[in-house]
Specification:
This is Prepilin peptidase. Keywords: Hydrolase, Membrane, Transmembrane, Transmembrane helix. The model has no long low-confidence stretch (mean pLDDT 90). This protein has 2 domains: 85 residues, no CATH class; 128 residues. It has 9 helices and no strands. It has 216 residues and is an all-alpha fold. It binds zinc ion.
C-alpha cells in the first residue's frame, strides 16, 4: 500500500516538473494560468490532471483539439513514480529530490539548452548535506568558478550546466560511482549525437543517474 502511495506522490511530482519545464520554455509564469493544452489552450478538467492515467485514457491526444501530448510526459510521470518508491529514509529522499531537480533541468535543457541557475545551487546543497564545512566551501567555490569562467570561454567543449551536475554528482555519490555514471551518460550522448549537430548533454546525464539509482 505504501509503495502505491509513494508512486502516486512521485508521478504527481513528475507531472508538475513537466508542466514547470514547459512553462520555462515558453517563458510563462509557473503559477498562472491553470494547467491547459499547449496547442488549443483549453483548461484541463480534474481527471485530465491525474498523472499516468489521463495520458493513457486520452491515448496521448488532447480531448478538445486532438493535439499530441508529448510522450515524455508519460515517461517522466512513470519514472518519477518509480523513483519515489525507492525512498526508504532521509538519505534516499534527498537523492530522489536531487534527481527530480536535475530531471527538471534536463527537460528545460533538452528544448532550450539552458535551465534555471537556482537548480544547480539547490541540488548541490542536497549533495553537500552530509559533508564537512570545508567540502561545503570547496563545492560552492567550484560552482562559483564555473559561473564566473564559463561566460568568458568562447567555444566551451562542455556546457556549464553539465559540469555543475558532475560536481554535484561527485559530491553526492563519490568518485567510483561518478566514473560509472559518466561512462553510461557518454555512451548515451554519443549514440544520440551520431545524427550530427549540437545536443543537450544534461538529459543523458540524468537518464544515466536515474538508471544507476534504480538498478544499483
Ligand atoms: Zn488541445
Amino acid at each position: 500500500m505504501l509503495i502505491i502511495i509513494l508512486f502516486i506522490y512521485g508521478s504527481c511530482t513528475g507531472s508538475l516538473l513537466v508542466a514547470m519545464a514547459s512553462r520555462y520554455v515558453t517563458g510563462d509564469s509557473y503559477l498562472f494560468p491553470a494547467s491547459h493544452c499547449d496547442t488549443c489552450q483549453t483548461p484541463l478538467t480534474y481527471w485530465q490532471l491525474v498523472p499516468v492515467l489521463s495520458y493513457t485514457l486520452l491515448r496521448g491526444k488532447c480531448q478538445t483539439c486532438g493535439g499530441t501530448i508529448p510522450a515524455v510526459t508519460l515517461i517522466v510521470e512513470v519514472t518519477a513514480g518509480l523513483l519515489a518508491t525507492t525512498v526508504t529514509d532521509w538519505t534516499s529522499f534527498l537523492i530522489v529530490l536531487w534527481l527530480a531537480l536535475w530531471g527538471f533541468a534536463a527537460l528545460c535543457d533538452w528544448q532550450t539548452q539552458t535551465f534555471p541557475g537556482w537548480v544547480s545551487w539547490l541540488a548541490t546543497g542536497f549533495s553537500l548535506w552530509h559533508h564537512s564545512p570545508l567540502v561545503w566551501l570547496l563545492g560552492c567555490a567550484c560552482l562559483l568558478a564555473i559561473h564566473l569562467l564559463w561566460p568568458r570561454w568562447r567555444h566551451p567543449v562542455i556546457g556549464d550546466g553539465d559540469l555543475e551536475m558532475m560536481v554535484s554528482y561527485g559530491l553526492l555519490r563519490g568518485v567510483t560511482a561518478t566514473a560509472h555514471w559518466l561512462v553510461v551518460a557518454c555512451l548515451l550522448g554519443l549514440w544520440r549525437a551520431r545524427v550530427g549537430g549540437r545536443i543537450a548533454f544534461l538529459p543523458d546525464l540524468v537518464v544515466s543517474a536515474v538508471g544507476w539509482w534504480l538498478v544499483a
